[in-house]
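Hi there. Long-time user, first ticket. I'm pasting a complex I've been working with (about 830 residues overall). I'd like to know whether the download I got is complete or cut off, because the file seemed smaller than I expected. Thanks.
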Amino acid sequence: MMTKLTRLLTGVATAAMILAGAGGASAAECIAPADPGGGWDFTCRTVGRLLYDLKIAEEPVQVTNMPGGVGAVAYANVMSKRPSDADLIVATSTVGVTQIAQGKYPADTDVMRWIGMLGTDVGVIVVPKDSPYKSLSDLMDAYKKDPASVVAAGSSGAGGWDHIRLLMVAKAAGMEADAFKQIRWVQFDGGSPAVTQMIGGQVQVVTTDLGEVAGFVESGDIRILGTLSDEPVPAFPDAPTAKSQGFDVTGYNWRGFYTGGEVSDADYQKWVDTMKKLYDSPEWKKAAEGSGLVPIWRGGAEFETYVGEQAEQMRQISKDIGVM
Amino acid sequence: MEILSSLADGFAIAATPTNLLFAVFGCFLGTIIGALPGIGPVNGVAILIPIAFALKLDPTTILILLSCIYYGCTYGGRIASIMLNIPGDASSIMATLDGHPMAKAGKASEALAISAVASFIGSSVATLGLTLFAPFLAKAAIYFGPSDYFALYVLAFAMISGLGGANPWKMLLAGFIGLMLSSVGLDPGTGMARYTGGSFNLYDGFDPIVAIVGLFAISEVLLYLETATHASGSLVPMGKAIPRFREMLPGLGASFRGSLVGFVSGILPGAGASQGAYMAYVIERRFSNKNNTFGKGDPRGLAAPEAGDNAAAGGALIPMLTLGIPGSGTTAVMLAMLVSLNIQPGPLLFERQPQMVWGLIASLYIANIVLLVMNIPLVGLFTRMLTMPQWILMPFIIIVSFLGVYSISHSTFDLMVMIGFGVLGYIFRKLDISLIPLVLGMLLGADMENNLRRALSISNGDFAILVQSPIAATLYSLTALILLGAFALALLKSRRERLDTTEVED
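Hi, the file is complete. Here it is re-exported in full:
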C-alpha cells in the first residue's frame, strides 16, 4: 500500500516535471518570459498550438514560463546560456523593447536575432461612458489648463509603455515636458483592473491595449476617445484615431519573437519562414482578431531594423519625459 | 426561474459521458497535485493546458477539466497540511494550525474527513453564490477602490494576534518580516529594483510558494535531522482508517461561517483564497474559542479555514468571468486560457456564451460531489502516509519539494531561495515564532503596498484619501473595535488572574 502510494506520488511529480518542460528534447521550445496568464504567455501558447494544429511544426511546441524582470531574466538566460539554440524562440513585445531602451535589460537589442511580429495590440485612450470628455481635444484641453486635474491609469508603472503612450499624445498636443511630471499616473495589474477602477470612479482616464478592455467597450461601459493607430481598428470602425483628431501618434504593442544571437542564418531564416507561414493562415487571423490583436507582419531583416529604430525612438521619448 | 432553466441547460452540457469522465479525472489529478508541496493549482492548471489542446478537446470540456483540477487542488492542499504539517499550497497554511495537532493526537482520519466535508460546504456555498448572484456581485469589485483594499489589508494585519500563539509580539514581528520580504524586487510603480543586489533573479521578488515549501517542508526535515538519532517508528499514531459518519459532524457550523467569510474575500480580487482561509480562521477563533481549544486540534479550527479556502476559490471565479479580473493566480491562468480559446471574459460573457458559462457552473456542482465522494475513501489511503517510517518520509519530502519548486521555475536560484527559507523557518521554529504571519506578510504585502501607492497617486500624495471613502472608514472602525476588544479582554483576564492569586493568598 505504502510503496504504491510512494510510486504514485513520485510518478505524478516526475510526469509534472517532464510536462513542464524539464525533459524536452528536440521539439521547439517557446519561452514566455512571464508567469502563466499574461500576454507573452498567450503569444507562446497560441502560436505554439497553431503551429502544431496546422502541421507547420511536427511536434507540439513546449512552452516554458521564465518570469523575472519584465523579461530580463529570460533575456540574460538566452544571451549567456543558449545563444546558438536553434530550437528556441522567446515571446516579446513592445513592452520588452521599452525595457531594453531604458537600460533595464542586461544588453541592447543587437545581442538577439529578431524573428518577426505577427500582430499588434492597439493602444487606446478610454473614459467612462458618462465622462465629460467627448474627444481627445477635450481631454488635452483639460490637461493643458491643469496637468494635475485628471487622474490617468494603465497597466504599466510610471515610464512604462501605457504611460509613455499617453504622454506622447500630450506632447503632440503641445504640452511642455515640465508639465508631464504633474500628470497623475496610477499603475494597475492589467487593463481590466484599471478600467474596472475607472468605472468605479477612482480614476478618470485609462490608456492601455484595446484587446484586454474590448469587452467593456462593447458593453457600453466605456468610450474610446482615440485609438493610437494609423487606421481605425476593424473591430470598432467608429472609434476615431488620434491622428484623425490632429494628434500624430501611434502606440502599437506588437507581439513577436526573438531567438539567440548566434543562431545560424539558415536556422534564423527557417524561423522567419515558419512564422510567415503561420501569419498567412486564416487560423492565425481568427485567433489574433478574437483576442483584439490586429494582424500585421514584419519579419526578418525588416523587423530587425524596426526593433532597433523603435528602441531608439523610445530612448528619446523616455529622456524627453524625464523617466530616464 | 430563468436561472434554473439556464442551469438545467448547463447540466445537459456538462453531463455528457466525455465531460463527466474528464471531470472525474480532473478531480483526482487535482487532489494529488494539491497534496504535493510546491505544485499548487496554478502549476496544475498551467501544466495541463497544452495537454488539453493537444487532445483537441472542445472549449467546454477543457474548461470543465481545468475547473475540476482547480477545485481538486483546493481539496488536496489540506492533506499534507494535516498529515505532515507541510501546506500543499499557499491557501492551506491555515489547515496546519488545528489539523496537524488532530493528526498528532491520532485523529488523522477524522481530520481528513471533517476537512473534506468542510471543503464540500465551502465549495457548495460559493458555487451557489456564483449561480445566483454573479452579475450582481461583480459590482463589489467596481466599488472597492485602492484605499478600501488598503484598509482591508490593515484589518487583516490587525487580526494577526487572533491567530493565537504564545506571544503576540512575536506574531507581529513575524508579520513585519514578511512585509519586508515582500518589498524585494521591481517596484511596480516606478520599475526601480529594490533589495535585489543587482540580480535579475530577484527582480520578481520571492515567490511565496517557494518560500512556503522552504519554510515548512525544508525546516521540518532540518528539525528531524536534529533529533534523528533517537527518533524511530512512525510519526504519529494512525487511528482508524475510515471515519464514521458521526465523526464528520463537528465543525458544521464553523464550515458555514467560514464559507461566507471566504466567499466574500474571494469576490474581491487580490489575495483571494489565502486571505479567505486566514480571515475564516481568525473570525471563527474569536467566535468559538471559549475553552482555549484552538491551535490544539479543535475541529472547528480546521473546518472554518478549509471551508473559507474553498469558498474563496469559487468566489474568485466571479470577477474572472464577469470583469476579466483574476482573483487569484489560478484564475489568472484560466483567464489566459479562455482568451486563447477566443472567449472574451467580461461584462458580456453571460449573454454571449451562456452555454459555456452555465456548462462550467454545472460542472462545478458535479466536481464538488465527485470530490466529496472520492475524498472520503481516500482518507484511508492518506492516513497510511503516516505509517511510513521517518527515514523514508523525510527524503521523500525533500525530493518532492525540490522537484516541485524546480518544475515551476526551472531555476536553480529558486532552489537556493527555498533552502534559505528552510533555514529561516528552522530558526523561527527554534525561537518559537509562528511561520504563518510571516507567510501572510509575504502574500499580502505587495498588494497592500501597491494599493497604498495607488491611493496616494490618485490623491497626489494627500493621506486623507485613505479614510475618505465610506468603505475604508467602516473597515478602520472595525479594526479599531477589534483591537480595543482584544485589549480590554487581555486587561480583564490579567485582573481576574490577579484576583485569583490574591484569593489563594488569603
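A couple of notes from our side: The two ends of chain A are 63 Å apart (CA to CA). Residues 2-22 of chain A form the longest helix (21 residues).
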